[in-house]
Amino acid sequence: MNTAAQSKIADIAEMISDLRNLVKQEAPDLLKLFDEYAGEMQFGRALIERNLRTLNFGAKILEVGAGSLLLSCRLQQEGFDVTALEPIGSGFSHFSRLQSIVLRYANSGGFVPTLLRSTGEGLSIREDFDFAFSINVMEHVGDVSTVLHRVHEALKPGGTYRFVCPNYAFPYEPHFNIPTLISKSLTRKLLWRWIEHSANVVDPVGTWASLNWISVRSVTDICRSRLSVTPYFDRTIFDIFLKRASSDRNFQGRRGPGLLAFIAVLERTKLLSLIRLIPAAVLPVMDCSIVRV
Fold it and tell me: Using one digit for the tens of pLDDT, what is the confidence trace for 22-80?
């Protein structure tokens, strides 16, 4: 690891430590959530590193569904011109308290991003961003087709929208850590008791209502018919997912022992190497990039 990379990691660790102390003082009931979102911020920052390396200092970035605002603030701190799109939708009302702490901290350091209180469907900016991204957001939007269209229009020619989210063609729901049964309605009908009382999410009813059952196939169809582009799906995201499931204790805690047991079975039976060969269309997670031509 080079000196610049080490310095960047140290800067992120310092930011997280400072904010954790603030949350502990002002909203100790949010400390567990903060730790979760801090982990997600670090994971997200590492995930988009290769995209960021292609951008110039001051490049305009749009985070679609910025949530706690941790990653948007961090990227602003690094010298990018960041717009954080975050309406706070169903299932995520707890973000507002945490956001206020994060924004106050960022303001004291002079790295507050532009905050856009809008849904993805309501985005009306055109040809303005060099890069847009979202991580575990697209499965919560109300209208996938409209959001893809609006974000695509917001990109400059040559700009990329990259998003990572579950692929519901695979029979597993990661927020609730349950199998899916053909459709959302049937899964709800048969597993509602587990969904309603899930300890995996802050607002089980609201989070369930927000899920849209997005899939690789549906995204491909939308891109080709509405955007006249062909999306690219990076299959290496599955290896990243498995590595995180095996090494990230906070992630393991949210997913439960079942996932680790499942991965262990795959490894023992040598099926893991075969699963890595299956098409992106049926992997449990998608990593999609859409370039505006």
Answer: 999 999 999 999 999 999 999 999 999 999 999 999 999 999 999 999 999 999 999 99
The phi, psi pair for 288, rounded to 5°, reads -110, 135
Own/partner pairs, 268-277, CB within 8 angstroms, 24+ separation: 272/242, 275/238, 276/235, 276/238, 276/239
- Alpha-carbon dihedral sign for residues 53, 133, 287, 198: positive
CATH number of the structural domain 3-168+202-251+284-291: 3.40.50.150
Length of the chain: 293
**Beta partners for residue 290, in sequence order:** 161
Give the β-pairing of 172-173 and 178-179.
antiparallel
- d(Cα 235, Cα 268) in Å, to the nearest integer? 22
61-72 pLDDT, tens digit per residue, is 999 999 999 999
DSSP line for the chain: --HHHHHHHHHHHHHHHHHHHHHHHH-GGGHHHHHHHHHHHHHHHHHTHHHHTTSPTT-EEEEES-TTSHHHHHHHHTT-EEEEE----TT-TTHHHHHHHHHHHHHHHT-PPEEE---STT----S-EEEEEEES-GGG-S-HHHHHHHHHHHEEEEEEEEEEEE-TTSSEETTTTEE-BSBHHHHHHHHHHHHHT-SSSS-HHHHHHH-----HHHHHHHIIIII----EE-TTHHHHHHHHHHH-HHHHHHH-HHHHHHHHHHHHTTHHHHHTTS-GGGSSEEEEEEE--
Domain parsing of the chain, residue ranges? 3-168+202-251+284-291
Average pLDDT for 128-137: 98
pTM: 0.91
